[in-house]
Amino acid sequence: MPQTADYHRFRSAIAGERLPCAIVDLDAFDANLAVCVELARRGEKSLRLASKSVRAPALLRRAIDRAGGVALGLMCFTVAEAVWLATEEGFDDLLVAYPTMQGADLDAFAQASADGRTLSLVVDSEDHLEALARAGREHGTVCRAVVELDVSYRPGIGVHVGARRSPLRDAEAVLRLCRRANVLDGVEVIGLMAYEAHIAGLTDKNPFTPARNPIARALKGVAGPRAAKLRAGVVEHLRAGGIDLEVVNGGGTGSLEAAAAEPALTEVTAGSALLAPHLFDYYRGLSLRPAAAFACQVVRSSDPGYLTCHGGGWIASGESGADRSPRPWLPAGLELVKTEGCGEVQTPLTTSRCKTELAPGDPVFFRHSKAGELAEHVNELLLVQGDRIVDRARTYRGHGQAFL
Ligand SMILES: Cc1ncc(COP(=O)(O)O)c(C=O)c1O
User: Which atom of ligand 1 is nearest to the CA of 251?
Assistant: First the structure.
């Protein structure tokens, strides 16, 4: 039983650690990285690591160092994060994938750019562009902008399937914004980002919402190729309009294979794949190894067949539902109590299907639903190899940083 062996080796590894604690299984992490690198390499793309899905600089560094030159840059979730990673942690080529209008962000971004850091910031409107240009001029530099194209599925009659991100939906709209940038001092458009969130974020073998799975598959079959066609068409239209892009970004863990095969993209993004939280078990065609977990101690038993853990309620963001809750993982067979779920202070579990004897004081390992959010609950990730902790990676929180 490999799961029993995993329970015992993780349990040995964390013996003596204060619970709750979070672990990363380095062999699984490296194997997941290798999957991403291979897909990117096959499609002749570089890999941009989504830092928000890891939130521990030492692990991001490990991934870049082990990607054989395929992973070059990071996709960040705030300017403050990107500037910190560049100036304090030595990372380069940081794309901030979400716009900002805060003066402090724009100043920090422009100053870091003036200091020679390679940063870029997503924009989708003249307001974004003008604010960035102003900061660039004030700091005597030219800020790098990446225009975001919305590739949601919009078949007409008011239907919108996808994340509500950019209002730019066709080649002309993107070209217009690029031309506007051309006449502004202090900013230049260096790339296009077109993230197919409605494909990458859509589980299609989800045991919590089985009725939706066939619909998700059908939708992916139609919307995936449409998004690819739109991206290719926009790149072509820009080229014809005299705009050549250094970066054309798309993809995410949930859509990596298809995105990596698209000729129009220069790079693909992935982050969650490295830690493989349980939400990514619910995608067909994705084969990743669980690489992260958190351990809570069993503190009591209220009734025969029940154990209660201290803590456990590390719920993930997004459309709320059962798949956003942590899942008890090891030892195998433990189940959540539906009426209580994973709680702020306690999580009861049923033990009738669990073959491992557990007593108060023993750890139970849970998998988080999403990747980087795990790191917001702990100061460090314990890096495990075999049955030992071989290193510790401070999280953003452990570095005293809270970005969003
Ligand atoms: C712009 C963008 N690209 C890619 C991703 C995919 O990240 P991950 O691979 O961690 O799922 C995200 C996730 O939210 C994103 O916002």
Answer: 4
